[in-house]
Each structure stands twice: as structure tokens, then as C-alpha cells.
Amino acid sequence: MQKSSITQAKTITAEVVLELSTYHTAKDLRSLQTKLTSTARELHAFSNSVTLLGKIGGKLSFEQRQLLRDAANLIQSVGFNIEHAKEKRQRSETAAKTRQKDRDASAKKLVEYAYPLPTDTLGHKLEIIRLALVLNRAGYFHAFYTPVEFSLRYRNYVTDTPSINGRKSPRRFWEDKIATLRSDLKYGIQEHLALKGEMTVQERFLALQRQVEALYTQVSSDPYEVETLQLWSHALSSIEMLEDEQ
């Protein structure tokens, strides 16, 4: 009875392993289980096998070889509970991936519905710039820039003389700029809505909508951001008139 208790890791249950491995994945647990299995195998070989290791171990006393076997059985017991923890963590990770996939799909659907962001007209293009300014203020788009820094960044696009590829017309160059911004905005909104947490995707969406509505007023009345929009309006309309004349 005593020997059985010695070789059984009763205090290292699957639940204990899961608690200790909160920030580790099923892959990490699988790797640890493999190491323990290998260690136990080596100890068994050392205590009783026809290999060179076993022959050397054969020179140990009976009590010493039994100690090696007990250690191997103890390690196997730990590995057994790690295997159970690994399986539970794997099921948990699979379920989490499924939930995240569902959140991603819901977020994408909401973004396509609420933010189609057409680019057909000058007004459409300016609304994309405005939304970028709003979402930056909300902290959901390039939040590492302050509103002033972000606005200045987009001013520089049109106030600095751009290096336009000779194979692109000015209109095409700016259309590509707008298209890239549009894509980045939609992706940024989708990522925000899909973030896991206590709020559902729909709840995050409604909270975002309320914030966007409030910040639209600020952006539309802030002299600096209004001027940023005016600079873009002038640049885009000038390019359109230039090409219409050609």
C-alpha cells in the first residue's frame, strides 16, 4: 500500500495541471507529456533492460533498481494526469476557436451592413476620411496617434507632393489611397467587434454606433479636422477636374 501511494501522483490531478498551466496551450502540455514519457522509459530501461544502459543499471542493488522503477511509475502517473489535462485544454481551445469564428462571422456581417463605404463620389470619399478621423478619436483606428497627429498624417498625404508611379494616373493613385483606407477601416471595425469578452458582438456594435454618432459631431466642428477634410476635398476635386479637361 505504501509503495502504491509513493508511485501515484495523487496531488497532481488534471485540474491542478490546468490551474498551473493557465497561460499554456494543449500543445505545451503535449510536449511536456512527451518529455515525461521519454524520461519514464529511460528510467525503466536503466532499471531492467538488455541495452547498455540496462546492463550498467544491473550493477545497482535491487533496492536501487526498485527506486528507479518507482520513480518511472511516479513520472508515468504525472504524465497520465497531464494527458487528461491536455485533452480538456484541447476541447476548451476547440470550443474557443469555434466561438471566435462565430464572432468573426457576425462582426463581418454587421460591418458589411452598417459600413458599406462606397467610393463612387467625392462625398463618399470624404466620408471615408471623416470616419477614419472619428474612429481614431474613439481609439479604434491607429490609436497610437493622437487626433492631431492622425489628422496631420492625413493632411500630409495631400499637402506633400506625392511620388506617383508613372504607370498610374493621379486619379488612380488617389483612388488606391482611398481604397486602402476603406479596407483598413472595415477590417479595424470588424476586429473591434469580434474581440472576445463579456459583451456580445451586437452589444459592441451598438456601443460603437453610439460613440461614432457622438464623435461625428466633434469631428465636424473641430476647426483642425474640418480643414483636413477641406484639404482632401480640394485635392480630390482638383484631380477630377484636371482629368475631365484632358
Q: What percent of residues are in strands?
A: under 5%
Distance between the termini: 97 Å
Order of helices and strands: HHHHHHHHHH
Shape field: elongated
- Round the mean pLDDT to the nearest integer and report it: 89
Describe the structure.
The chain is mainly α. It folds into two domains: 2-97; 115-245, no CATH class. It is built from ten helices and no strands. The chain is elongated. The mean pLDDT is 89.
In short:
The chain is mainly alpha-helical and 246 residues long.
Which characteristics define this entry?
single chain, 246 residues, mainly alpha, elongated
Question: Helix and strand layout, with pairings?
Answer:
Blueprint: H1 2-6, H2 14-20, H3 26-47, H4 52-57, H5 62-114, H6 122-138, H7 147-159, H8 170-194, H9 201-221, H10 223-245
Helix pairs in contact: 2-5, 3-5, 5-8, 6-7, 6-8, 6-9, 6-10, 7-10
